[in-house]
């Protein structure tokens, strides 16, 4: 499996992540006088917490223990959401709740891919494509899936989804699209796209530095296998 990332040579600062809060699966299990049920909301909150640290590669964990805890939590959550779906326990969810459940399921497979678990990208693709098919005007979905495609080195596909997200009004996606262009070595397009991002978000102090670094050839592209 391959991923890509950028080393911004002009900015050597170390970025620290916030501590990872381990998921407590027992809190998601209800026992009412021997009658067991599951609290899906607790599980999805666990997915959200994990997503903060593992939505992109490289993963953002402070230490190896947090990494190990997250890896274990990821597998528990995948098994839990798979079971809920297979047993149709989520059948009584509202439309909004079902969307959130399916998006969380997709994100679990995305994160599993980032943890280098085999065949997870294909599962993430299935869920994201189904979500987009059923929510064709949701620009955030296109942006998220386009970012995943780009991060997993499917750059041309990622470009298409990121462009669609922008068409649907997600202007902050200009940044991801600019970095996608840079990964494809389309430097002029990257500069122009990042300038569009800067136009919409002038308060971001880093955009101008990145644009200048591209112009000065100070950004090194690195692919990790």
Short description:
The protein is mainly alpha-helical and 225 residues long. 59% of the residues lie in helices and 9% in strands. The chain has one domain (38-219): Alpha Horseshoe (Serine Threonine Protein Phosphatase 5, Tetratricopeptide repeat), CATH 1.25.40.
Question: How is this fold's topology laid out?
Answer:
Blueprint: E1 3-8, E2 29-32, E3 35-38, H1 40-54, H2 64-86, H3 95-114, H4 120-134, H5 139-151, H6 155-167, H7 173-183, H8 187-200, H9 207-215, E4 219-224
Antiparallel strand pairs: 1-4, 2-3
Helix pairs in contact: 1-2, 1-3, 2-3, 3-4, 5-6, 6-7, 7-8, 8-9
Describe this structure in words.
This protein is mostly helical and 225 residues long. Helix content is 59%, strand content 9%. The protein has one domain (38-219): Serine Threonine Protein Phosphatase 5, Tetratricopeptide repeat (Alpha Horseshoe), CATH 1.25.40. It contains 9 helices and 4 strands; from the N terminus they run βββαααααααααβ. The radius of gyration is 19 Å and the shape is globular. The chain starts with a strand and ends with a strand. Mean pLDDT is 90; it is low at 4-15.
């Amino acid at each position: 499996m391959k991923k890509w990332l950028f080393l911004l040579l002009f900015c050597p600062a170390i970025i620290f992540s916030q501590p990872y809060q381990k998921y407590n699966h027992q809190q998601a299990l209800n026992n009412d006088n021997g009658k067991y049920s599951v609290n899906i909301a607790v599980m999805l909150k666990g997915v959200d917490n994990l997503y903060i640290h593992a939505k992109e590669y490289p993963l953002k964990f402070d230490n190896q223990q947090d990494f190990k805890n997250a890896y274990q939590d990821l597998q528990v959550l995948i098994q839990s959401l798979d079971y809920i779906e297979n047993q149709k326990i989520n059948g009584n969810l509202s439309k909004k709740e079902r969307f959130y459940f399916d998006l969380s399921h997709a994100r679990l497979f995305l994160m599993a891919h980032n943890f280098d678990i085999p065949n997870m990208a294909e599962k993430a693709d299935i869920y994201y494509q189904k979500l987009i098919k059923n929510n064709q005007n949701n620009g955030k979905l296109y942006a998220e899936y386009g970012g995943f495609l780009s991060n997993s080195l499917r750059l041309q596909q990622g470009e298409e989804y990121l462009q669609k997200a922008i068409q649907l009004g997600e202007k902050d996606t200009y940044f991801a699209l600019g970095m996608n262009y840079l990964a494809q070595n389309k430097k002029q397009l990257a500069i122009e796209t990042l300038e569009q991002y800067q136009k919409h978000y002038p308060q971001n102090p880093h955009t101008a530095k990145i644009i200048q670094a591209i112009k000065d050839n100070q950004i090194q592209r690195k692919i990790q296998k």
